[in-house]
Amino acid sequence: MNTSLLMLWGYWDEIYQRCTRLTYIEKGKNIFRVVVLRYRGEPLVTTDNCIIHDGDLILKLHIHNYYFATLSKEVKDELRMALLLRRHILQSLPKLATFLNSMENKDQIKGIVGTTMLHKGVTPLGFSISDVPMTRFFRYKRWYLRLMLRIVHPNGKRRLQSWNHEMPLKRVYMSKDLLVNRYAESKQSLGESY
């Protein structure tokens, strides 16, 4: 990626972070940023049969795209890019679990929910996947994420052309209990494995 473009993106990312009230899990070390809000949408059933209803309090999950772009700026291979992202997600989940478990209102939070185009391979990590409705908001989000993919991904332009007009944008989600039980307790072993 062009260094000047990356620098401009860094400035924009700071503005975006402040406008969206996103909280860093661990700035410069964790791939996730989050914000507490009310879930809006159809009921989501997690792999451990927890149901996230419209109006439930959730931790909205955002992949820190700019941070990942800085990590992967020298990567040209698609497979290496995917493995790098997976590794950073695995390394970041234990800190996310600890963060959620330490929140004052943790008992009110039902789970974590994110929207992404990078959803392949997340089910073994404990996430469930569902489609998103084609509202104006999600059309905008798809456009924005496609732009990010084109910038960050080594074959972004070709990948987007192969998708044509398909909508690979998905909701990924996990219950709070599953996140905490699976990742907070295994923080040490995961850290040693990667």
UniProtKB/TrEMBL annotation:
Residues 4-183 form the YkoP-like domain. This is YkoP-like domain-containing protein. It comes from Brevibacillus fortis.
